[in-house]
Amino acid sequence: MDKAFKGEHLFPGHLGQLFIVLSFGGALLSAVSYYFATVNKDNTDNSWLRLGRWAFYLNSISLVGVASCLFYVIYNHYFEYHYAWAYTSKDLPVYYIVSGFWNGQEGGFLLWTFWQAVLGNILIWKAKSWEKPVMTIVSFVQVWLASMMLGIEIFGTRIGSSPFLLLRDAIQAPIFSNPDYLSFIKDGQGMNPLLQNYWMVIHPPTLFLGLASVIVPFSYAIAGLWQKRYKEWITPAIPYALFSAMILGTGVIMGSLWAYESLNFGGFWAWDPVENASIFPWLIMVAGLHVLIVYKNSGHSYFTATFLILLSFIMVLYQSFLARSGVLGETSVHSFTDEGMFWQLVSFILVFLALSVYLMITRRKELPISKKDEETYSREFWMFVGSIFLGLSCFHLVLVTSIPVWNNIFKTKVAPPTDLVGHYNIIQASFAMVITILTGFSQFLRYKKTETTKFFITTMVYMLVAALITIPVIYFSGLYKLHFVFLLVMFGSVYSILANGKVLADALKGKFKLAGSAVAHIGFGLMLVGALISAGTRKLVSVNEAGVGIADFNKSPAEQRIAGDAHENIMIYRNEPIKMGGYTVTYLGDSTSEPDHYYKVDYKRYNETGKIADEFVLKPHVQVSSQMGFVSNPDTKHFLSHDLYTHITAIPTIKQAPTQDSQTAAAHGDENDDKNYDPPIAHEVAIGDTIRFREGFMILKSLKKETAIQNIPLTDSDVAIGAQVQIFSNGKTYSSEPVYMVHGKSVFDFARTVDDVGLKLRLSKIIPDKSKVEVTVYQQPENKKPWIVMRALDFPYINFLWSGTLIMIIGFLLSIFRRNKELKTV
């Protein structure tokens, strides 16, 4: 049947599908082999262990094969494959073609299982006595992930979705009855314009590495329960838990950077349901990590540590369900459609949830329990409390984000809070306030017991200093206008930075093992400071005092009315400077680099003497795509103390710049846009003469007698004269060359447009007896001049957010190095 269709490249798809089956089979064989290697009591027989390793190697190599085949299909634009057609197009640069690799459901699962294979190979090398039980779990999860890409039907039920599904099998359409259907498919649908950003090239691989890495501490926890090695798994699991928390956090912040640089809502976090879901596992992993450290240092809270580590992986599976099942399709811009995998995703969660619950219940009487209660004035007690608050923060997000899930399960119609963003901001800020204060004063406590007098004196001194710093920060930044809870978060953040700064200073004096946690906490505090000030006190720069809304810009001045968004958007005509905030802003023009349309906006700031103190050009761009309609991408000027953020909110209809061929057609009467201009005015001029128009003047510099016209060959009897005109308007200079031609027995003139000043020029007549020519000038009406509507925001001190992220990552790295060093000494 396949041979009936012309031009299809079926081999890479067949080979890729074979690799998918091999990866599934390898993972299944590895899981079974490692299981028997684990339960086998004969320590001298390593045959099951060897088979498990080789099967996992087969899984890993097969995944590389799947990825290679998929990239080959995408890179060569084989649009007979649904994945290539749905997510890429020929005009995409190579780096976006790479990001198209994980643009769809199937590519996301492939990336996830690839990273998990990498981590599995590291465990084979490093896990030593833990290899057998840990790799049993890792391989078992690989089976489930590989099944997500199988794309086969068993007893009428489809298992997974293959990235090598043919377009004619994915879509039912009459075109596929034609054996030569590919000749009609010239290009793919292309990539969602919102994803065409360099952050989307690096953000998904980072986030998926973080999601994949959660399997390692989870597998250690399951292995510890399974093998009744309850205490031993803690030490080797901590470095991996640190790595997971670091990479997950980095991936989430990269997503925030993408939103800040690519989306036009004016911020870095919108509380979108899929955004919320991405931090579920991070919150639980950070909570679990702290309780692991509590147990390692004090012997307390074993059950809670194990529970949180197990829950972190369940949260990975649940966030994947939310993003990929289609259940959030009507509430999130990031959500995938169902694609028939709803119940497969549910079963993925239930299997590993059941395994975790079963082991926790059956081993409950054997779990290590401290016979002595924790001291109230001990570090482990308050670290435990902080972890509980992290868990409660996650519980709140899960509860509200999952409202569509509850409605789906119970057939209810529960509505989310009316002001959803405000709801999240207040509740989550309350949790953040408690957590920051705990990360501060817990640093002054010792494990097991602390001298209370010294603790209270130190804590109160630092709280007083924090208050003295926070009060002017709140006043001068304008935070005092916000809800009281945000002021408390600022106080907690400053206090945490100061307290952990003291610990860092002590670490530099010789207690270096304390440096990692101190640096991570300082970074977290700086992140919150940056987020609070930049989001809470951002300033609108594009204040529209005329009261004209976006919806009204295409109306005549008499029809314009005040609209709801009028005050946030400002209309700018090309080359007409206007005052906007502390800047003088000029729309200079636009250019096209397919598929993006860029708009050049010049910003000038003058000092008191009238001289230019600062000048820069921003180039926000838009796309008009079949998938998303009008899509605006901002451009941002970064300063040390603030960011100036600009994006386009409305434009005239985008039209392509006229080509030489279109101008030739116009000369022959095939295209006439004279209706877009005021009535023309003819000027008789000699070389050197000046023609004035509404916004400037032009000078006829010379007449060129050997002008060439594209696609029109000239004979010796033909004449083509070009008028070289220099145009001066709004401090800028432009050139144009309208052409007059005698070709055979016919006379033509070729108009030239100068879009930046709204002109069209024709060399309409040659007057030899006067040594003059006639230049006809068309000028666009004032109310039809090119324009844009834009919105500009100022984000003060947002660099605290980004720098805090970097510092937090450094803190995690220091902690990983420390824990790895401890592991080597065990």
Q: If helices are DSSP runs of H or I spanning 4 or more residues, what is the number of helices? A: 21
Quote the average pLDDT.
86
Tell me what portion of residues adopts beta-strand conformation: 15-25%
Percent helix range: 40-55%
Uncertain parts: 547-564, 655-671
Shape: globular
- Note the main sheet: 6 strands, antiparallel
| Number of separate strands | 23
Which structural class do the helices and strands define?
alpha+beta
Cα-based radius of gyration, to the nearest Å? 33 Å
Give the termini separation: 63 Å
Summarize, please.
Among the domains are: 1-191, no CATH class; 204-209 and 217-413, no CATH class; 664-784, Tick-borne Encephalitis virus Glycoprotein, domain 1 (Sandwich).
Explain this structure to me?
- About 50% of the residues lie in helices and about 15% in strands.
- The protein is an alpha+beta fold.
- Among the domains are: about 1-190, no CATH class; about 205-210 and about 215-415, no CATH class; about 665-785, Tick-borne Encephalitis virus Glycoprotein, domain 1, CATH 2.60.98.
- The strands form five sheets. Strands 5, 6, 7, 8, 9 and 10 form a six-stranded antiparallel sheet that branches. Strands 14, 15, 16, 17, 18 and 19 form a six-stranded antiparallel sheet that branches. Strands 3, 4, 11, 12 and 23 form a five-stranded antiparallel sheet that branches.
- A hairpin with a 2-residue loop joins strand 18 and strand 19 (about 745-750).
- Helix 1 runs antiparallel to helix 2 (about 45-75), helix 10 (about 235-260) runs antiparallel to helix 11 and helix 17 (about 450-475) crosses helix 18.
- The protein is globular.
- Mean pLDDT is about 85; it is low at about 545-565 and about 655-670.
